Each structure stands twice: as C-alpha cells, then as structure tokens.
Amino acid sequence: MSTPFIIGVAGGSGSGKTTVTNKVLETIGSEMAAVIIQDYYYRDQSHLTFEQRLGTNYDHPQAFDWPLLISHIDDLRNGRAIEMPVYDFANHTRSDQTVTVQPAPVIVIEGLFPLYDAALREMMSLKIFVDTDSDVRFIRRLKRDIAERGRTMESVIEQYLSTVRPMHNQFIEPTKRFADVILPHGANDPAVDIITTKVASLMV
C-alpha cells in the first residue's frame, strides 16, 4: 500500500474502542499497524499547579493538543516516525517519556474524539464509532480509573456526573454522524469481524 489505510475508532469512555483496535491488530499483525492513542495527546499542564490541573475537563475537545496530533498523523502517513507523548494521569500532565511509533500500512487512531476534527477526518479511510450503553461504559470507566489511574471511587463518580456524561452528550455522541460504521452494543463480534476482514483484504 503506497498510502496508509487510516482508521478512526471513536466512542465514549469505556465503550470498547481498545477491543476493536486489538482485534484489528490480531488480524493483520501488530507490525503492520501504527496505533495512536488520543488519550496520550492531552495538553501538557506542567506550567500549572497540581490543584489547577485537577480542574481540567478531560472530556472536552479543548483538553487535547490537536496541532501535535494532526502533525503526527501527517508524519506517519508520509513515512516519518514520531515520538508519541505519554500522559501521566496520576499527576495530570504530560510525562517526560515518549513512545516511538514507526510508519505502517495501517494507522489506527483510537480515542474519544478522532471524528471530531474535520482535518483529522479527511485523513481517514474508515471511520468507526463504537456505540455502547452508558451504564456499561460507566462501570468499565470506574474499574479502569481505580485500577490504572490511581483514582478513588468517589472522584470517578463525581467526574462522571459533572463532566463525563454531559460532555459525551454534547460533543462525543454527535460525532457518530460522521462514522462510516457504527458498532451497536459495543465491540460485538459480528461487526468487528466484518471490519477486520475488510482491513485484512487490503494487506493481500
């Protein structure tokens, strides 16, 4: 493939986006894909105090470093490796570490808002929205944030009610209209199989 096949995998927090991404990797081989995690592209907040960082609305589009994300996707599709940032969710700012991502025939962009930005959408060959019931998404987010991000149950619930749910309804859910494929009931096997079969056919 002379031009990378770029896939956007969007959906609410805990919807099953990572499951879809992993299925694609299992089908074509991880060495054939470059995976960009949009959560790593939250804006650097090292210039703010820790207390100020706690007030960041991570479920709003403005929380992301869009110029850096778009430039990195452009680099990858033009055959240039990138240094993907790593976000420190315990300290609410960008880490000093980066992850080297090499160009590949398939580029997967996974996150809340891959379908939000028009410039990013125009780069995509396939736009996917993973649609999952809100109660399932909340339970998954609660478990993840406690286990992986050092959060308390009370803080996760408060954040969900104050920002996650309203931001999902205002900003994430509407991007579903830009999707080429909507996966109902989350990453259900029949729908994911169709997608992975399509992507695998491009590798032949």
Name the structural class.
alpha/beta
Strand order of the largest sheet: 2-5-1-6-7
Outline type: globular
CATH topology: Rossmann fold
Oligomer: single chain
Main beta sheet strand tally, sense and closure: 5 strands, parallel
* Total number of strands: 7
What is the share of helical residues? Answer: 40-55%
Query: How large, in whole angstroms, is the Cα Rg?
Result: 17 Å
Q: CATH H level: which superfamily?
A: P-loop containing nucleotide triphosphate hydrolases
Provide the succession of SSEs.
Answer: EHEHHEEEHEHHEH
How would you sum up this structure, described in words?
The protein has 204 residues and is α/β, with parallel strands linked by helices. The protein has a single domain, classed as P-loop containing nucleotide triphosphate hydrolases (Rossmann fold, 3-Layer(aba) Sandwich), CATH 3.40.50.300. It has helices spanning 17-28, 50-53, 66-77, 118-122, 134-148, 153-172, 189-202; strands at residues 5-11, 33-37, 82-88, 93-101, 106-111, 126-130, 181-183. The termini are close together. The model has no long low-confidence stretch (mean pLDDT 91).
Short description:
The protein is of the alpha/beta class and 204 residues long.
